[in-house]
Write a structure and sequence with these properties.
about 120 residues, mainly alpha, two-stranded antiparallel ribbon, about 75% helix, elongated
Length: about 120
């Protein structure tokens, strides 16, 4: 991220994937996962409990992607401040940090009764 911000500030060209591309992709995929699982839900006639767990996983994926996206946006603005010394960059980071907390709380709510550890996604059932 540091290299990305430096190049942005200097107006230099980026080579390869960028943090912006990655967060856009993970957010897009999170949304697509939820849309797909919602469409599939109307067709489920068997193994409804297992499907509900998979469905919850899709919502977890979306919340995690949204959380990550907002943290990256905030980090970008904080790093930009290092170069700009413009306090508005820091102030602009705050809404992203606040949103990230909202998404993180959503993730906590979605996982509080299902997962023991986020790093391994070990289920508690």
């Amino acid at each position: 991220m540091t290299e990305y911000v430096e190049k942005e500030v200097k107006g230099e060209k980026h080579i390869g994937e960028t943090p912006v591309q990655i967060i856009d992709e993970v957010v897009k995929h999170g949304k697509l996962f939820v849309e797909a699982i919602e469409r599939a839900a109307t067709q489920v006639n068997k193994n409804k409990e297992e499907f509900a767990r998979v469905k919850n996983d899709m919502y977890c994926n979306q919340a995690l992607a949204d959380f990550f996206s907002e943290k990256v946006k905030a980090a970008y603005l904080v790093l930009k401040y290092i170069y700009s010394k413009d306090i508005s960059d820091l102030k602009s980071a705050l809404p992203h940090l606040e949103k990230s907390v909202v998404y993180y709380q959503k993730l906590v709510d979605l996982t509080k009764d299902t997962y023991l550890y986020a790093n391994s996604m070990q289920k508690d059932f």
